[in-house]
Amino acid sequence: MAEKEPGLDPLSEDARLTSLDARLKQATDDEAIRSGAGRDKGDDDYRLGNRVLAELIGGMVGGALIGWVLDRLLGTSPWLLLTLLALGIVVAFRNIIRISNRRAK
Fold first, then answer.
1. Which of 14, 31, 28, 93 lies closest to 60 in space, CA to CA?
2. Contact assessment for residue 55 and residue 92, using Cβ atoms and an 8 Å cutoff
């Protein structure tokens, strides 16, 4: 029923407005790409978590393995194993702190 009532016809969209909308969307997309807002933040956090885990496990396993091998060769069981394991843990935490401070910038 409302279709049959007389009234104003809707205005057709101006080509200038369509062009302006397209240019505005393109400029917004370009700025998002330039500033890095277009990237998925989840991927960066996932990579950072994997790096922290690798540092922690690598420091512990590396220190323990080197200490165990040196203990076997030098016959100083378990002292070099414990010392190098502790050193590996300290170095791993130092690297994790460095990584976290770099990300805070």
1. 93
2. yes
